[in-house]
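$ ./design --mode recover --in tokens.txt
reading tokens...
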């Protein structure tokens, strides 16, 4: 006996996280994680590499009772709906949009696919279908908002052009302050210099440890916790976090609906920095969004993919469609793109 099900995927900088679930029952499997980010190439996100990782994970979740707690009496093999939340979809997703629906149909019999930017799944996980704004901050930073008619996004332009206030931004600012102290220039921090030397070694060798790295944003972001540790006693570190909070609040204000009583939520690992970041951030949000209400995020981007999958399978998807941010696709010969 088989039961109708769905597939939900969160594809980000640390790899894939995947769950399957039953339509209508509320039951889902535990997540499986790949630990390897999907490659990007000339056509953007590599759909072939995506499927190489996804197929064995889905097979394990649908066939193994140890990996899946979905149903003890039936095999979940009818995955009619799939929701793929992917980092970089808005700017690097052309190949994924073209190839993935057909690949999912061939491998798993998927009939309907929602392709969503990871900011959209972050929003759905945090706020569901309520109007408002979500700031998603980890190594990078993006803000996304909706009035349930359309989407608005701010930042998310990567560590060279933006992601202002994100982990890489904070880490880079902290290391700049350390190097200022090392040089004897104004604006330096001896506390951050000490931390940088403990983490990276002699400052003269720092450029060689950062610039050639393909994971440079993550290397920079790894210093952000040291900035937070120094902030209570170091005015330079505290200023960096205040500036990060200001950037975040500016992005939130740019996307938050201007009318009604929208909700604002924060999601992502960067907020584990705690009070040194959260206190100034709450102050900045109160200044820029006095009409909005700050609420706790209900879930993470994978939870958001599950929410979208359940709504889509039930024919009740209320989040607005968008050519780049959220599209629902039926593979050729199985339906329409809408």
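writing sequence...
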């Amino acid at each position: 006996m088989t039961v109708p099900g769905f597939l939900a995927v969160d594809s980000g900088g640390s790899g894939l996280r995947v769950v399957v679930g039953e339509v209508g029952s509320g039951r889902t499997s535990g997540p499986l994680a790949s630990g390897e980010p999907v490659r990007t190439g000339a056509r953007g996100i590599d759909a072939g590499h995506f499927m190489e990782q996804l197929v064995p994970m889905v097979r394990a979740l649908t066939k193994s009772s140890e990996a899946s707690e979905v149903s003890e009496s039936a095999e979940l093999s009818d995955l009619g709906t799939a929701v793929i939340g992917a980092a970089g979809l808005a700017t690097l997703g052309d190949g994924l949009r073209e190839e993935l629906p057909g690949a999912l149909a061939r491998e798993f019999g998927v009939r309907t696919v929602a392709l969503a930017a990871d900011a959209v799944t972050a929003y759905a996980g945090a706020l569901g279908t309520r109007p408002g704004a979500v700031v998603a901050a980890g190594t990078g930073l993006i803000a996304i908002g909706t009035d349930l008619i359309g989407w608005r996004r701010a930042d998310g332009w990567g560590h060279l052009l933006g992601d202002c206030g994100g982990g890489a931004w904070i880490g880079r600012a902290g290391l700049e302050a350390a190097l200022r102290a090392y040089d004897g220039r104004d604006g330096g921090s001896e506390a951050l210099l000490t931390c940088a030397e403990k983490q990276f070694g002699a400052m003269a060798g720092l450029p060689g440890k950062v610039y050639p790295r393909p994971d440079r944003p993550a290397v920079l972001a790894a210093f952000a916790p040291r900035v937070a540790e120094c902030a209570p006693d170091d005015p330079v570190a505290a200023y960096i976090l205040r500036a990060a909070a200001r950037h975040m609040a500016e992005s939130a204000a740019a996307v938050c609906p201007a009318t009604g009583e929208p909700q604002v939520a924060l999601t992502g690992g960067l907020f584990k920095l705690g009070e040194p970041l959260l206190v100034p951030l709450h102050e900045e949000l109160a200044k820029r969004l006095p009409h909005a209400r700050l609420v706790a995020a209900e879930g993470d981007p994978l939870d958001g993919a599950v929410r979208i999958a359940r709504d889509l399978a039930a024919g009740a998807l209320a989040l607005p469609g968008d050519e780049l941010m959220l599209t629902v696709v039926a593979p050729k010969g199985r339906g329409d793109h809408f």
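exit 0
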